[in-house]
Amino acid sequence: MVLGGGPTGENLADRVHAAGLSAVLVEHELVGGECSYWACMPSKALLRPVTARSEASRVPGLKDAVAGPLDAPAVLAHRDAFASYWKDDGQVRWLDSAGIDLVRGRGRLAGPRRVTVDGGRTLIARHAVAVCTGSRPVLPDVPGLAEAKPWTSRDATSSKTVPGRLVIVGGGVVGVEMATAWRALGASVTLLVRGDGLLPRMEPFVGHLVAESLAEAGVFLRTGTEVREVRREAPGGPVTVVLGPEDEIVADELLIATGRAPRTEDLGLETVGLTPGGWLEVDDTLRATGVPGGWLYGAGDVNHRALLTHQGKYQARIAGAAIAARARGVPILESDRWGAHSASADRHAVPQVVFSDPEAAAVGLSAAEAERAGHRIRVVDYDLGAVAGASLYADGYRGRARMVVDLDREVLLGVTFVGPGVGELLHSATVAVAAEVPVERLWHAVPAYPTISEIWLRLLEAYRGD
Amino acid sequence: MVLGGGPTGENLADRVHAAGLSAVLVEHELVGGECSYWACMPSKALLRPVTARSEASRVPGLKDAVAGPLDAPAVLAHRDAFASYWKDDGQVRWLDSAGIDLVRGRGRLAGPRRVTVDGGRTLIARHAVAVCTGSRPVLPDVPGLAEAKPWTSRDATSSKTVPGRLVIVGGGVVGVEMATAWRALGASVTLLVRGDGLLPRMEPFVGHLVAESLAEAGVFLRTGTEVREVRREAPGGPVTVVLGPEDEIVADELLIATGRAPRTEDLGLETVGLTPGGWLEVDDTLRATGVPGGWLYGAGDVNHRALLTHQGKYQARIAGAAIAARARGVPILESDRWGAHSASADRHAVPQVVFSDPEAAAVGLSAAEAERAGHRIRVVDYDLGAVAGASLYADGYRGRARMVVDLDREVLLGVTFVGPGVGELLHSATVAVAAEVPVERLWHAVPAYPTISEIWLRLLEAYRGD
């Protein structure tokens, strides 16, 4: 029994059903979840035209052609199509074809293995209940903010019109991606961040380059800010963001993208001895810790291991396999670290692509994280613009790459790229990090010339001291 | 002592110099070689605007902007810059900075370890002579062809003007890439191939898709053809290509791209017991076989292992390390298959990207090659257009992926992608194939959502029977 029909829940249900169990999915909103309607799909549909234009503008023979603004109505219509017009018919058909039962309504635990739907019908799980309810944006505690009805990520990805002036609070992925998209669609954008840079979970050079590029696109970036008060006099009217005495910004919309919280407040967790509202603690098989009987699982954002769609889907595959194995009485060994029932990649090789302009992509540990974790490391940096394939890809290519090498085992702990067209390059690093390929062997993985991938040769040469 | 100053020769000289030996490079043309002036660099400078336009034309908000023709003079000027205006000053400066001596002239062996330059000055190698003279295009034996002065790859990549009508003979990489480029720049292009499809060394579906796309771009493709005669009445005048009785094509230029031969005719190979004009046979350390004393090496196209710039550079790194090791008296073990002195990737993991529209990329063995080699395999195909990241990348995305799995070892023998934007995706496959990463472990290399790289998940799911 799966609570929550986003990509994680759908995949988990599919996995256990494919393994011969029956699966039921309980969802009170749209099947397909945040990703399909208010995150990955619509945001990337908004962003792809931005990067395509940016790249075309850096190529001779096209520069003039793409100098004008994007056709915003065309892009928004495209986004609507990629969000399936906020209807889940396609997803429901898929559930049906996959043999998964759908129960529409709000699922709530009512003691071990028991789930009530909308406070009425009670379902009992034979093998397991998996919580895949995801996360929601959190509004910080700022006077006037809630009353001003700011945009959250849902509004930012689904807005039918381009705001004239948009203020964004938060320099993480949502803030950066939405600043990129709405600026390219014509909005005047101000990006307010509390710290001193963007994308603070990646290597520092990533945020520097993205900030530089956003500034060139005309985004106003203000670091070290704190929103003290927000005022919106009339619904639909302008919103005033107060940063300090005599420091106010007036805009048409305000997007808050400062953090997320687990969707666990109203799940009945208290009926099984857990605390509502918190992140769900799980082990590497995605089974909730501290629940007798071992029938409760949590996959996706809700367990706070890695708040990314692809990682939720990965957890769903692992959890589905683990549930099915245990249902058949197959023991799962703790030692089976990279086997079919352990979400080991969550701890070693989480990839992320930020669809900014330029793209940012990273997997595994940053240098700072590796040091904090006590690894003896060497950091190798290289200017992506010095790679022939990159200079052919875009005039005046600016980018950077870093690999973090574990000196004790001579494997990569993490790799980061920032620059045009690096999104698809990341998976090479993900394979290297997840498979713990020795540096000596990577020397034989020859990058095709002249591609941006030749950065691998440069990084390895630099590491070997060549 | 290195004969031939292309990327392979330059890298080999650099490697031995970095290892503490002295290196001298003998070159009678431009330092930087075919790749810098008449192959990779100019061809990709011509092709990148084509793919950038093609991709922009499949994105909403830009379609109309890029509907017009490419600005050919701008593209050609860009190409000129990327070919360094056919001057090698930059390369010579690099040699200088790397501490490599340059001797301008035609180097020729004159017995063991001896090289004469332009028939005069004699140089004697202390440790080794490396032949890195590459390959040249071959004109087939067709009446009138040589007299008609057809284009070879050099002319096709360096032409200062766009021919009105261009006939290309040969459906390999050069033929396909040049058809793509010159058609986009405005030429009327006819592509003649002897067999039944394009890019015959890749999986068959690659050639099908590229042919379909070339046809849509307006290229006339004729398969199963044989050129029987060529006539050009006046220099610079039209050229007539005779395919059969009453089957003639008249064009302004004719590009012959049907094959290459080693540049070994005039190297004095006979003075050391080898046959001039043939490919140079070498072992996995790139040392020529059948030459007493073991002082002769051959790297790059000339040894026929893999006629690709990046593979030549790889061989240069391996050969340079082997020469330096032997100079120090370090034994090189046969068993050290993936070590620093064995070009093992030449036999297992050669990557290639064809910069056609769409791009084609492959590494390792095709299904047919794997079967011929006696492997017990399973072939997994997947429609790239069905991957969310691909459909976001380009409207109506068409593409395909194949992985060839060795069933005995559960590792990948080869991977092929064809579709927009797959060029940078290839290195993920190259790492997997070169490192022989078990399929079970690839399951933990999670592709970021929504990228085209998610094809990896689909292929692995299909293989596992999920």
UniProtKB/TrEMBL annotation, chains A, B:
Its cofactor is FAD. Residues 1-310 form the FAD/NAD(P)-binding domain. GO terms for biological process: 2-oxoglutarate metabolic process. It holds the Pfam family Pyr_redox_dim. NAD(+) binds at residues 170-177, 259. Binds 1 FAD per subunit. Disulfide bonds join 35-40. Residues 350-456 form the Pyridine nucleotide-disulphide oxidoreductase dimerisation domain. Belongs to the class-I pyridine nucleotide-disulfide oxidoreductase family. This is Pyridine nucleotide-disulfide oxidoreductase. The lineage of its organism: Bacteria, Bacillati, Actinomycetota, Actinomycetes, Kitasatosporales.
